[in-house]
Structure to design on (833 residues):
């Protein structure tokens, strides 16, 4: 690259090349420069927001220098890259994370302090980047951190939503959604005005025969929208590698925005066209684990996938390699089925545009993609109506039909006369209207398919994708258990615990190799270590208690057992069972004598999480939690023995102070429904124990930390079907303790019982699909065991230390190395610092 530029020119550029700050003074100079010039403020009107902005802009400059170096090193290395396609990246805040990953937080804290600010306050000014719903989006964010930290040449591709997940307000006990307009100041992104792609929708397919007799299909007409790239630097920990997250924003294409209309006075209609284009990347769909099937969502998917593939193909073409080399240079990972159209779009590019024959194109395609499944819940599996799809993407539908035809023909050859099998595995479901089963398309078009925890990966092989295991053989299906990044979820969220661990282990190397935590185990019985350990937990609980007091007015005792369930509200996650358990505890306390009460372990039950706006049952669960808290928290008989708190607007930055403050966290999904769960890992890593079902990653956590350190309860996945069946035939009487709870709700103890009728109905006439009644007795008795265990502080300290020392497996670094070795076949690239 260098030799193409004349030496004098090169020398001048090199002489003035941007340099990074690397001392406190240089950092301060950059902060002040940004405050005074970029922001046009001064010492006299620099508030916390301006100071945050100055610090963030200084940090951004530093990251971008490493970002440039990284991109150059990756181009020179010319190795295979991985592209992680995800409709969600739940990034949270960046400043603190970037300071820690670049290991400059210490002097930055001092630096801003000498400028008159406290770093915590500046960090707190930052708006969460909330471009995701929950676990799936946060997993993508942890993976980006690990990919950069492990120096893999990797890009993320997503959508730049103008509105992230809504903000939740609780008004009169009910969830109210408020739009999350987060882009008014976002220092972490760079618009790339030179990187645009025109994306087409609708129209028709023109088919003609070439002179050589071959048929050509051309997709024509329709609407055109422009995709504009925004780049977000992703700094690794302990490396200069700074990868790229490219987010696409939609705008009218230059041809589309109709100046004719504009000038001729048809202003409104021209603005409507502009808005239609901008609508594509306007909002994140706020649904977790549910498919809604709206046309605008399909438009988002195609817009993002087509722009990303155009970009990936353009980069590949620069190397002038043969097309058959494509899978040696490019791996594309599909985060759930949302980007499955990429398979079809690559076929369209190779066949229609590059004129490869179908078989060659298909071989390239199926060598390139990997598909990660994140759920077995039938209501979450994406299916697109054929008429809707045909109208929006006519050529893609033809390609899907061809993929399906060739696939079914090959199945028929291998399993002749099994008509049932053919209709079961067809990409097209013969319903009315017909629908496209996106998961099947993703499996057929990928080299590898993985689940996200052992149980989950087994379940997909034996239930929803069973036929495909028979067709493709078991090796196509694999497991990569999820993980979380210890940089954000230990070092950043719990700096005191991280520092204590460093003191014991001698260095922060565990943040790069989490298995080193095993070195803590020998201190598990050391009394003074236990004390330091528990003191940190106590201070984290005090901080949460203060937050609760400040935001809700509720006083909680930081010595009480903090019992936390924070995650999206969903019937399968069973927050309803938790709040029923709280009611049951309340009733027992009320029935006790003063003397008995004095012996009880005080509890604070903390809930948090958003309900999808259209998910009425989830909203009713929130209302029950807030109703119970109003009654219990004001009952003088109860005092500190039980408090119930709903934390408004649970998000990444709140998770960062909740995880370190838990004694117990709840991961209590009906067995077989939670694919993995990742907050379970975060809570244990921060020195909390968990109560949970034999589901998702809870099972592997148990294997790693030992079953004496986890409170497991409830029925097993293998029994769920029979239990549901029994309910349907009315053979299951309601658990007596649960019956008492329902009666109390119906008596009106928590307000107008009609409000909660849906919840009761689900347990009775509804057939108790999530088996709350079946698990209730063991849930309550396990909570009793928790109370007993909590009384023995030394044993509790011992168990939490041992548990943390055995959590090395759950780093997202391990997960990413498994993807790199077994699915992507990629190697790290060294970037000089
Ligand atoms: N998950 Br599908 C989501 O957060 N949203 C979704 O739409 C779907 C799955 C979650 C799983 O529920 C959770 O168990 C898993 O840990 C997470 O994806 C990451 O794999």
């Amino acid at each position: 690259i260098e030799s193409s530029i004349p030496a004098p020119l090169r020398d001048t550029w090199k002489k003035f090349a941007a340099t990074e700050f690397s001392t406190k003074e240089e950092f301060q100079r950059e902060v002040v420069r940004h405050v005074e010039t970029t922001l046009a403020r001064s010492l006299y009107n620099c508030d916390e927001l301006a100071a945050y902005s100055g610090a963030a802009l200084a940090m951004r400059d530093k990251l971008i220098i490493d970002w440039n170096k990284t991109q150059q090193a990756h181009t020179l290395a010319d190795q295979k890259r991985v592209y992680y396609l995800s409709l969600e990246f739940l990034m949270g805040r960046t400043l603190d994370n970037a300071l820690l990953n670049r290991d400059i937080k210490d002097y930055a804290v001092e630096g801003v302090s000498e400028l008159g600010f406290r770093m915590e306050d500046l960090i707190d000014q930052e708006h969460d980047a909330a471009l995701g719903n929950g676990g799936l989006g946060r997993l993508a964010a942890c993976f980006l951190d690990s990919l950069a930290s492990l120096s893999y040449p990797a890009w993320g591709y997503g959508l730049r939503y103008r509105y992230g997940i809504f903000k939740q307000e609780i008004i009169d006990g009910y969830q109210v959604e408020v739009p999350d307009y987060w882009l008014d100041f976002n220092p972490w992104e760079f618009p790339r005005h030179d990187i645009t792609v025109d994306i087409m929708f609708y129209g028709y397919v023109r088919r003609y025969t070439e002179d050589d007799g071959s048929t050509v299909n051309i997709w024509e007409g329709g609407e055109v929208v422009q995709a504009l790239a925004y780049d977000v630097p992703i700094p690794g920990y302990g490396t200069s590698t700074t990868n790229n997250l490219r987010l696409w924003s939609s705008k009218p294409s230059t041809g589309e925005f109709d100046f004719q209309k504009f000038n001729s006075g048809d202003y409104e209609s021209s603005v409507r066209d502009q808005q239609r284009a901008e609508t594509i990347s306007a909002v994140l769909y706020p649904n977790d684990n549910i498919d809604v099937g709206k046309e605008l969502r399909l438009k988002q998917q195609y817009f993002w996938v087509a722009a990303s593939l155009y970009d990936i193909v353009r980069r590949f073409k620069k190397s002038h390699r043969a097309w058959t080399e494509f899978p040696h240079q490019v791996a594309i990972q599909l985060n759930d089925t949302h980007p499955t159209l990429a398979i079809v779009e690559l076929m369209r590019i190779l066949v229609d545009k590059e004129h490869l024959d179908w078989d060659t194109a298909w071989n390239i395609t199926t060598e390139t993609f990997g598909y990660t499944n994140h759920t077995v819940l039938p209501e979450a599996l994406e299916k697109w109506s054929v008429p809707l799809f045909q109208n929006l993407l006519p050529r893609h539908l033809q390609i899907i039909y061809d993929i399906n035809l060739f696939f079914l023909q090959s199945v028929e050859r291998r399993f002749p006369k099994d008509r049932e099998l053919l209709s079961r595995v067809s990409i097209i479901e013969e319903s009315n209207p017909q629908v496209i089963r996106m998961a099947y398309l993703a499996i057929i078009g990928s080299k590898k398919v993985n689940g996200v925890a052992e149980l989950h990966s087994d379940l997909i092989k034996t239930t929803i994708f069973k036929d495909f295991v028979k067709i493709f053989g078991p090796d196509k299906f694999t497991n990569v258990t999820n993980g979380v990044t210890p940089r954000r979820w230990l070092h950043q969220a719990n700096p005191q615990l991280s520092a204590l661990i460093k003191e014991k282990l001698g260095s922060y190397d565990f943040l790069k190799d989490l298995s080193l935590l095993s070195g803590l185990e020998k201190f598990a019985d050391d009394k003074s270590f236990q004390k330091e350990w528990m003191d940190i937990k106590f201070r984290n609980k005090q901080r949460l208690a203060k937050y609760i007091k400040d935001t809700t007015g509720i006083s909680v005792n930081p010595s009480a057992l903090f019992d936390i369930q924070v995650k999206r509200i969903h019937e399968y996650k069973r927050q309803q069972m938790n709040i029923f358990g709280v009611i049951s505890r309340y009733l027992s306390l009320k029935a006790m004598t003063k003397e008995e009460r004095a012996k009880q372990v005080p509890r604070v039950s903390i809930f948090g999480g958003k309900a999808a706006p259209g998910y009425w049952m989830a909203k009713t669960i929130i209302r029950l939690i807030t109703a119970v808290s109003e009654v219990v928290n004001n009952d003088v008989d109860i005092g500190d023995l039980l408090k119930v708190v709903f934390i408004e607007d649970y998000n990444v930055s709140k998770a960062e102070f909740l995880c370190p403050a838990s004694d117990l966290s709840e991961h209590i999904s009906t067995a077989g429904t939670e694919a993995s769960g990742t907050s379970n890992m975060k809570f244990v890593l921060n020195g909390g124990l968990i109560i949970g079902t034999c589901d998702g990653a809870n099972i592997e956590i148990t294997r790693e930390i030992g079953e004496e350190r986890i409170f497991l309860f409830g029925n097993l996945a293998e029994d769920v079907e029979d239990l549901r069946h029994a309910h349907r035939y009315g053979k299951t009487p309601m658990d007596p303790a649960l019956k008492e709870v329902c009666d109390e709700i119906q008596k009106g103890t928590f307000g107008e019982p009609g409000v909660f009728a849906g919840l009761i109905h689900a347990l009775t006439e509804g057939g108790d699909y999530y088996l709350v009644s079946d698990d209730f007795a063991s849930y309550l008795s396990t909570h009793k065991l928790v109370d007993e265990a909590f009384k023995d502080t030394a044993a509790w300290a011992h168990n939490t230390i041992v548990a943390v020392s055995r959590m090395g497996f759950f780093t997202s670094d391990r997960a990413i190395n498994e993807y790199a070795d077994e699915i992507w076949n990629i190697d790290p690239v060294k970037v000089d610092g």
